[in-house]
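ARCHIVE CARD
SHELF: 3
SLOT: left
DATA:
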Amino acid sequence: QVPLGESGGGLVQPGGSLKLSCATSRSIFSQYAMGWYRQAPGKQRELVALITTRGDTNYADSVKGRFTISRDHTKNTVVLQMNSLKPEDTAVYYCNLHGTPIWGQGTQVIVSS
């Protein structure tokens, strides 16, 4: 089983920040592009951000300029820095190995005053 360990969710006020992390093994980290997806209640899961092994990134229009995805090579971790959070960002966030059906367990993000 491929390990994808997510952390960093929680409750934050609108305008606040959170950082999500997805840790995996060194071999997996070096071979796969990785993405963050989210799923809000009653909605389909959607791509939030993607980063390739080279560091190229892609973002959903709704998060451009607010979220940043990056790779921490010292920790074999993909990080999603989320700033200027809005209530509509509330969802369960999932880490994914791009192009595979391998997902993390999900971490809840709630943006509310």
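SLOT: right
DATA:
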Amino acid sequence: EVQLVESGGGLVQTGGSLRLSCAASGATFDDYVIGWFRQAPGKEREGVSCVHSRDGIPYYLDSAKGRFTISTDNTKDTVYLYLQMNNLKPEDTAVYYCATEPRTSYSSNYFCHRAPLWFNSWGQGTPVTVSS
């Protein structure tokens, strides 16, 4: 079973930056899709940015384009996922989670849109609060 550990959240002012990190382990990461999701108070969880290892072409939520950058790094057994978030806005306030599906042909777009409906191995998340 995949284990996910997120970190890097915090409290920042509008316009500030944060870099989130996620360590994904417990699986063989061949041909995987991985991404960042967030859930704001009273709202549904949504995909922020996802990427598939095969093509490396990222998907971004419209509101994240131009401000957020997803990246990955790998060891033999662990995928490290990052999200550089710049020019943060109060509407970015949420708990941020990572999720991954190893050995899949799901596109980054599909995973970001659909994973909140069925993925059930979420980590503890890391909270991001952007003050105005």
